[in-house]
Amino acid sequence: MDEIYQKYARFVYRYLLSLGACEDVAEEVMQETFYQAVHSLHTYKGESKLSTWLCAIARNQYAKYRRKNPEHVPFDESFMAGSISDPNSRVDLLRKMQILSSVSREIMYLRVYGNLSFRQIGEVLGISENTARVTYYRAREKLRKEMEENKLHILVKDLLPDYIDGLTSPETNKIIEEHLFQCSSCQKALERMKESPSILDQDEKIEFDYLKLVRKRSRRHIWLSVCIVLVIVVSFLTISTFWIGRQTPAALLNINTTVAPYQVSLEVECLDQGRKVSRVEWKENGSHVQAIIFTVPGNDERKSFMYTTDQLIENVEVAGQIVWEDGTKIPDELGLLHAYKVEYIGNASQVSHLLEKMNVSSLVGSYTFELDGTRLIIETARPLADVYVNRESLLILSLIENASSVTWKSQGKKETVSVESLDALLKTEIKEGYGSLSAFTQNVERLEQSEEIWNQYTFDVQIRPVRLDKEQIVSFIVRENGEPVEEFSGYVKDWVNEDGSFVWRVYLQKGRYTIQFKIDGESTQEVPFNSDSRYRLQKIENTWRLEKRE
User: Fold this and answer.
1) What does pLDDT average to over the chain?
2) Do 326 and 347 belong together in one domain?
3) pLDDT over threshold 50, residue 149
C-alpha cells in the first residue's frame, strides 16, 4: 500500500483542490481516502484504473467532510482579481479552474491531471462518456477565454498612466479604448487617475518632457526608415526591370545562330510585344556553350552578340533551346518540338500536347486521335494530302519513343506510315532522333531533300474586326500562273479560331503562287502566297480584302 500511496497521493491531493477544498482540508481528506482504501482494497476488482477508484473514494470522503463541517467554505474566486503570475503553474491553473462549475471542474482535473479517458471520467462521476467529453471541451474554451481577458485586463491597467500622458502609440490606444468600452473596472481606474493627477517636481517634469521628445523622435526615425526601405526596394525593382532584365525562353524569341569552331554569333529579337533584348549572359562547360537571354521593356529591336572561346565548340544552347549539336544547326521549330518528346505512347495527355505543338490542326483542320497499342490513329476533318503525311509521321514517330506507326484517316481514305517504312526510305534508323537532336534534324532534312516531300507554304490570316457566323462556308484556291493547283473549303467552326485567327499550311512544289479567299462565295483579290504569308482580312465598302501585315 505504501507504493500506491507514494504514486497516487499527490494526484488525489490535487483532485481534492479542484473540488474546492483548501490545502489543509485537502491534506486531511487525502489521508482519510487512503485509510478507507486500505480497508476496502479487497473490493477493488480491477475493472477500472486504480486512480479512478481512488478518486471515487476521495469524492465520497470530501462530501462526508462537507456534511460534518457545514461552516467550511470552498475556495472562492478571489484569485481572478489578482495578476496571472505564471500561466504554466499547475497550482495557478487549479485556482483558475474555480470559475468553472463543480462538475466541469472535476472533469477538467480528471482529464488534465488524471489522464483519464472520457469513459473512465463518466464512471467516476456517474455520467455518460459523451456528456463528459462535451462538458470538458466547453469548460476548456471558457477557461481559455477567461485567462486571455484577464491578461488583457492587467496589461491595460499597467498602460493607463502612459495612455493619459499620451505616450502610447495609436495602435495601442485603439486596443486600450476597445477594452475600456467593455471593462467597467478599468473605466473607473482611468477616471480616478484623471481626477488625481500627480504633481511633478521640476526634475520629474523635465524627465517627462524628455520622454515625450524621445517618442516624437522615435516616430520620426521610424518614418524615415520606412522611406529609406521603400526607396531601396523601388530602386532595386527599377534596376531589375530596366537594366538587369528578365530571363526569356526561346519560344518568345526569334534566334539566328552562326557557329564557328571557336566562336558563336547570335542575332536575337524578342517576339513578346513591348519588350526588347537587353543582354546575353554566356556560360561555358567544356565544349558546351550556353547563352541566357534577358529582355527589358521597350520596342522591338534586333541585336547581335558574339562569344569566343579557346575550346572547340560542339553544342550551343540559347535561351534553354539547343541550336547547335555535334556540328548540326538545329532549326527553331525542331528544337522546340524535341523538348516535348513523349516516352510512352499510352500517355494521351502528353501525346495531345505534342500534336498541338506540331500545329497539326493547321494542316488537317479539326481532328481526333486514338491509341491502339503502339499505333497512333488520327482522324481528320479535311481531306488528306500525301505531301505532308510522311513528314508529320516522321516527327511523331521520332518523338514518341515506343510508337510503331501512324494511321491517317479522312473521308474514307486511310494511309499508314510505319517506323520500318521510314527507315527504308531514309536508309537510317529514325528512332535515333529521340535521343539525339542532331540525328532528329538530319532525318528531317534528309526527308525534305528527297523526292517524297515538297516545300511548305503557310497562309496566316487575322479576321478583323468582323466576327463570322460559325455556319458560314470559307474556301480558298491556290493558283500558279493562273492555273488552280489546290482548293479547299469548310465551315468557319472547323477552320477559324475563336479569336478570328486562321492558319493553313500546305506542301507544294517550289514555285510562285497566289491565293484567293472566299466567304459564302464572296471572293477577295488574289495575293502572293509564299512560305510565310501573313494577311489581315477585312470588309471595305462591302468588299472582302486581304491586307498584308507584318
Assistant:
1) 80
2) no
3) yes
Residue 459 inside a domain? The answer is yes
Sorting pLDDT into bands at 50, 70 and 90, what band is 350? Answer: very high
| pTM score of the predicted model | 0.46
Continuous segment of H or E residues that includes residue 213: helix 202-239
Q: E-strand spans in 159-310?
A: 246-247, 253-260, 263-270, 275-285, 288-297, 303-308
Q: What is the pLDDT of residue 72?
A: 55
For the segment 433-444, the average pLDDT, to the nearest whole number, is 92
Strands 455-463 and 533-540: parallel
Query: What Rg value do the Cα atoms of the chain yield, rounded?
Result: 44
Domain that holds residue 65: 2-150
Q: How far apart are CA 307 and CA 263, in angstroms?
A: 6
Cα separation, 211 vs 217, in Å, equals 10
Q: Which residues pair with 328 in a beta bridge?
A: 325
- How many C-beta atoms lie closer than 10 Å to residue 409's C-beta? 16
Q: Is residue 131 located within the same domain as residue 39?
A: yes
The CATH number of whichever domain residue 480 belongs to comes to: 2.60.40
* Residue where a domain terminates, one of 307, 330, 353: 330
Q: By the 8 A CB rule, do 178 and 170 touch?
A: no
Determine the average pLDDT of the residues in 449-466: 72
Q: What's the CATH code of the domain at 117? A: 1.20.140
**47-61 CB burial, b ≥16 within 10 A, e <16:** ebbebbbbbbbbbeb
Nearest Cα to 451, choosing from 396, 509, 513, 531? 509
Sequence letter at residue 292: I
Task: Report how far apart, in Å, the C-alpha atoms of 260 and of each of 265, 308, 314, 335, 429 are.
Answer: 8, 9, 10, 19, 29
Q: Are residues 112 and 8 in the same domain?
A: yes
Residue 229 lies in a domain: no
